[in-house]
Design brief:
Keywords: 4Fe-4S, Iron, Iron-sulfur, Isoprene biosynthesis, Metal-binding, Oxidoreductase. Its cofactor is [4Fe-4S] cluster. This is 4-hydroxy-3-methylbut-2-en-1-yl diphosphate synthase (flavodoxin). The chain has helices at about 40-55, 65-80, 90-100, 115-125, 145-150, 155-170, 185-195, 215-230, 245-255, 280-290, 310-315, 345-360, and strands at about 15, 20, 30-35, 60, 85, 105, 130-135, 175-180, 205, 235, 265-270, 300-305, 320, 325-330, 335-340. By secondary structure, the protein is α/β, with parallel strands linked by helices. It has 2 domains: about 15-255, TIM Barrel (Alpha-Beta Barrel), CATH 3.20.20; about 265-360, Sulfite Reductase Hemoprotein, domain 1 (2-Layer Sandwich). α4 links the parallel β6 (about 105) and β7. It binds iron/sulfur cluster.
Length: about 375
């Protein structure tokens, strides 16, 4: 039941994206990015709201044109989750969205162009308390760095990142975070490890273009999981060729697996075999879907028989251990007198889990929907 994570986080400075703290021990935030046309305000707002509903702490929106910047203004007025504007090259767009209340700029200072333009963006960010994310990507390294290293290497990614970092240092601006993403998990891992020792700022983790929902989730879980287990990473995005809502869910599942941060129900279910006394797979799938709106962190074990059922149930907030006709129910590790009919589990289990979630929430032991300091 909600064991502490043994991970020791890398010390870092802290920035705030809107009201979300990043770095210096703040809970690791989970973000995603919209894939609607930003100029389609209604569709983008709807997508941001669906991301917020599944727990997104921060949402990034790409702002490629001045028209998109105008749309961003309207979007910003209709949502409450902090927004990062993704901008490449055009410093005027950065100034515009800053005026419209953006919470973070993803822009690489080295790509903005002339010194006066860089200074204009950085001064504006400083005045308005807007942090910057430097985002380096293995697929879009500067030409001279590509030539120097021949191929994207960790050193190449970090050299590129440090160019941008040095510009901000020179302008005395320290409110930034950095990402060095690559689609290869090992390259990303090596790059983040290297960078973690070079700067004090928080790190934004990601395995870029990780792939489709299944393979991309596995690759991200391995790449991000290794870094997170070493204490590296302060905010993350899982990049999937899938609905961005999946990115948030997978991001939380990664944090949940490492016991770093919980949101929603952690189902413990056995893989099933011929001993199962109720249909475990159908039950867990149906409950996952029915209970998507429950954000209270809690453990629910659904185990098909008495081989592992009682043991798992004893460690969960609620547990079901399959047995003939009627299965045994556990709450906070204790077996209850009440048993549930194996043929009518779903409605009863849903009601019991909801009731337990509200007890946990009301007990005030776990605050949800907010990032705690
Ligand atoms: S807990 Fe029971 S039903 Fe589930 S896999 Fe193990 S032996 Fe099979």
């Amino acid at each position: 039941m909600q064991h502490e994570s043994p991970i020791k986080r890398r010390p870092s400075t802290r920035i705030y994206v809107g009201d979300v703290p990043i770095g210096d021990g703040a809970p690791i935030s989970v973000q995603s990015m919209t894939n609607t046309r930003t100029t389609d305000v209604d569709a983008t707002v709807a997508q941001i709201q669906s991301l917020e509903k599944v727990g997104a702490d921060i949402v990034r929106v790409s702002v490629p044109t001045m028209d998109a910047a105008e749309a961003f203004k309207q979007i910003k007025q209709q949502v409450s989750v902090p927004l990062v504007a993704d901008i490449h090259f055009d410093y005027r767009i950065a100034l515009k969205v800053a005026e419209y209340g953006v919470d973070c700029l993803r822009i690489n200072p080295g790509n903005i162009g002339k010194e006066d333009r860089i200074r204009a963006v950085v001064d504006c960010a400083r005045d308005k308390n807007i942090p910057i994310r430097i985002g380096v990507n293995g697929g879009s390294l500067e030409k001279d760095i590509q030539e120097k290293y021949g191929e994207p290497t960790a050193e190449a990614l970090v050299e590129s990142a440090m160019r941008h970092v040095d510009i901000l240092d020179r302008l005395n601006f320290d409110q930034f975070k950095v990402s060095v993403k690559a689609s290869d998990a090992f390259l990303a891992i090596d790059s983040y490890r290297l960078l973690a020792n070079k700067i004090d700022q928080p790190l934004h983790l990601g395995i870029t273009e990780a792939g489709g929902a299944r393979a991309g989730s596995v690759k991200s879980a391995i790449g991000l999981g290794i870094l997170l287990s070493e204490g590296i990473g302060d905010t993350l995005r899982v990049s999937l060729a899938a609905n961005p809502v999946e990115e948030i869910k997978v991001g939380f599942d990664i944090l949940k697996s490492l016991r770093i941060r919980s949101r929603g129900i952690n189902f413990i279910a056995c893989p099933t075999c011929s001993r199962q006394e109720f249909d475990v797979i159908a039950t867990v799938n149906a409950l996952e879907e029915r209970l998507e709106d429950v954000l209270t962190p809690m453990d629910v074990s659904l185990i098909g028989c008495v081989v592992n059922g009682p043991g798992e149930a004893e460690a969960a907030h609620l547990g079901l251990a399959g047995s003939k006709n009627k299965s045994a129910l556990y709450e906070d590790g204790k077996r209850l007198k009440e048993r549930l009919d194996n043929n009518a589990l779903l409605d009863q289990l849903e009601a019991k889990i909801r009731a337990k979630a509200s007890v946990i929430e009301q007990s005030g032991r776990i605050k949800i929907n907010q990032i705690e300091e």
